[in-house]
Amino acid sequence: MKHHTFLLDYKDGRKIFFNHWTTEGEKKGTIILVHGLGEHSGRYHHVAEFFTSKGFEFLAPDTFGHGKTEGPKGYTKSMEDYLDLIDFTLEKCGLNDTGLPNILYGHSMGGLLALMYEQKRRGSFSAMMITSPALAPGFKVPALKLLAGKIGKAIMPSLTQPNGLEVRHLSHDQNVINAYLNDPLVHDKLSALVGMGILEWGEWYQNHAEKIAVPTLIMQGTEDRITNFKINKEKFSQMDGDIQIVEWPGYFHELHNEDKKRDVFDKMYEWLSGILNKV
């Protein structure tokens, strides 16, 4: 595996930071990651290491408001920016017509963004892998915070509050928790626009999405307390399409950072290999 980073100028002048991990063997396709809220793409180095060993390139931007991408933390001008970023990645990295499959991989907030992208844009993806998607919170959002978010979105959309995530519920692995807490690129800032945007898009998806047009793997831990396992299971069980739902008993939110994460990676690769053999 080889790893390098680069910056690309977005259409409005913001510099977008990318991590790119390449395989040293025959290339089977490219996995594009959309990471979760408050984190950054560098936290997926070990995931990229696994998939590059299997012949996939792994490409991951830091999304707007996150990591080393330019701009205020926790904020972007429009939720559509996140979908535009996926299009931008495909276009600027020359992935629209390589003849090899592109796979969209989204976690948590990134899972919701990937799902919304599929509904609104489609794009040139052969499959999606979605973990712990943020269709609804796994905890009760305080009424006062919700009210502040609604008012803030209307009059001061860039106003940030703490995102309210319980870090201890990310993973059972204390080393992961410690690394998260000490990571200078991780933050808990969430703007009114993005916070309400996540809730509104999650509600829209629950009420309006009926079919997924590409083969999709949905995975979540049964003890996820950050995104809502029950709502996700019910929704995806009712949707049309080639959808495989995999539950991980006892696992927390970050399946890729649990003690038995290799089992998670193996399942993802097994599913992906089966799908791509049909393409």
Structure overview:
The chain is of the alpha/beta class and 279 residues long. The chain has one domain: Rossmann fold, CATH 3.40.50.1820. It has eight helices and ten strands. The strands form two sheets. The chain has an eight-stranded mixed β-sheet with strand order 1-2-4-3-5-6-9-10, sandwiched between helices. A two-stranded antiparallel ribbon has the order 7-8. The two termini are 26 Å apart.
SSE topology:
Elements: E1 2-9, E2 15-22, E3 29-34, H1 45-53, E4 56-61, H2 80-92, E5 102-107, H3 109-120, E6 127-131, H4 143-155, E7 160-162, H5 174-181, E8 189-191, H6 192-208, E9 216-221, H7 229-238, E10 243-248, H8 261-276
Parallel strand pairs: 3-4, 3-5, 5-6, 6-9, 9-10
Antiparallel strand pairs: 1-2, 2-4, 7-8
Helix pairs in contact: 3-6, 4-6
**Helix count, DSSP H or I runs of 4 or more residues:** 8
Q: Quick one: how many beta strands?
A: 10
Radius of gyration, in angstroms, nearest whole number = 17 Å
In helices, the fraction of residues equals 25-40%
The CATH H-level homologous superfamily: Alpha/Beta hydrolase fold, catalytic domain
- What count of structural domains? 1
- Runs in which pLDDT lies below 50 for 5 or more consecutive residues are none
Q: Major sheet: order of its strands? A: 1-2-4-3-5-6-9-10
Mean pLDDT: 95
Percent strand equals 15-25%
For the sheet with most strands, the description reads: 8 strands, mixed
Distance between the termini: 26 Å
Order of helices and strands: EEEHEHEHEHEHEHEHEH
Structural class: alpha/beta
Shape: globular
